[in-house]
Design goal:
14 strands; seven-stranded mixed β-sheet; about 375 residues; alpha/beta; single chain; three-stranded antiparallel β-sheet
């Protein structure tokens, strides 16, 4: 019976060996850059109203209207930075307290009851705006006030207020120039803070704000050309001021027809406000953008369509395949650059770190051990009976 025991044990060993071979032959390591074929994996929006005072009611309504649209299309508050230089909802002149309307019929309160303003009043400054874009916020700043984007983020930046040739005023006290804005976007690109960026500005001589852009994957849209004024749309007699600007009004009219999974292209958005409606001439700059606008979805910037791709292959987040790791004689004690290392949302506890050091147990290994023990048990019982 000893020969039978040896045969059974050898059979069990060979079965386990071939089972593991089959498992590893079916598993293929794929670099992470080959998984996200659609380009971006998340969306962010930075919406800025730079104007104070009651007679600039329409600028606040502009920003709040875009805020409502992107939120309706799926971008959560956690991915929206809203900056309002004045609080029109609580202004003493407002006949409808706690409400802001973008239409004279007042059928839609764009202020709503679930708004989250990240920067309000005197917090809306050029310095804070640049800090948000470049990620250089002071220590202790709440996470809700930061733009936590990465190199897979598509970002929409919308600005509205009073401007001129090459500048946009902040609260009638300071201004940001087109050169400063271009340099801020270049810092974002160098720090891998965006994948593609759509910049929209509704102000007088808006096209001058994207003249000096030089960073890749940027689109610039302005409501007026250099030398032109950007005009308001209509007044609300009950409130006593203009409630929205022309370009933003027609852009929102277009966005209201966009829904989840919409196939509308960005090239159609460029034509939302022709000169006969805007009075001014909207401008678009596309030379820095890598893709054809007729192939870019509107929801790539205004929505939050999450790209989910199912794969049975392993994904190497470090950008290095297992084969490369085996063939190369790299000193494990040296720190290697981790290309696709994403920031941690919460600090990990000591117990979690200990668990991460444990070797993963594959299902095939567990199955092999079970078969091995079963065959050993059968052999043992056979010996006992005989």
């Amino acid at each position: 019976m000893m020969a039978a025991d040896v045969i059974c044990l050898r059979f069990a060993f060979l079965f386990c060996f071939f089972l593991n071979k089959i498992h590893h032959s079916e598993t293929k390591t794929v670099p992470v850059e080959n998984v996200f074929k659609s380009g971006h994996t998340n969306n962010w929006a930075v919406l800025v109203c730079t104007s104070r005072f009651w007679f600039n009611y329409r600028h606040v309504a502009n920003a709040l209207s875009v805020y409502r649209s992107v939120k309706r299309l799926g971008i959560p508050d956690s991915h929206i930075i809203l900056m309002l230089a004045d609080d029109m909802a609580c202004n003493a002149r407002n006949p409808r307290p706690a409400a802001v309307f973008n239409n004279a019929k007042q059928f839609l309160n764009v202020y709503g009851d679930d708004i989250e303003v990240d920067y309000r009043g005197y917090e809306v400054t050029v310095e804070n705006f640049i800090r948000v874009l470049t990620g250089r916020l002071p220590p202790g700043t709440p996470r809700s006030k930061g733009l936590l984007s990465d190199d897979r983020s598509n970002i929409l930046i919308y600005m509205t207020g009073h401007g001129g040739d090459g500048f946009l005023k902040f609260q009638d006290a300071e201004e940001i120039s087109s050169i400063e804005l271009a340099d801020a976007f270049q810092q974002m690109w160098q720090k891998q803070r965006y994948h593609e960026l759509l910049f929209i500005v509704d102000t007088c001589q808006a096209a001058s704000m994207y003249e000096y852009f030089y960073s890749p994957n940027l689109i610039g849209i302005g409501s007026s050309q250099v030398g032109e004024d950007s005009l308001s749309h209509h007044v609300d007699p009950a409130i006593g001021v203009y409630v929205i600007d022309r370009y933003t009004y027609h852009a929102l009219e277009f966005l209201e027809a966009v829904s989840f999974g919409s196939a509308k292209k960005l090239s159609t958005f460029f034509e939302v406000c022709p000169k006969r409606q805007c009075i001014s001439t909207p401008g678009v700059r596309m030379d820095l953008f890598q893709r054809d606008s007729s192939q870019v979805l509107v929801t790539d910037f205004f929505g939050n369509v999450r790209n989910i791709e199912i794969t049975t292959n392993k994904v190497c987040l470090l950008g290095v395949t297992v084969a490369d790791e085996v063939d190369s004689n790299i000193d494990k004690s040296k720190n290697t650059t981790e290309i696709f290392l994403y920031p941690e949302l919460f600090p990990k506890s000591y117990d979690t770190k200990k668990k991460e050091k444990q070797l993963p147990v594959h299902q095939s290994f567990v199955l092999s051990c079970s078969v091995f023990l079963m065959l050993s048990g059968v052999t043992f019982l056979t010996n006992q009976v005989s």
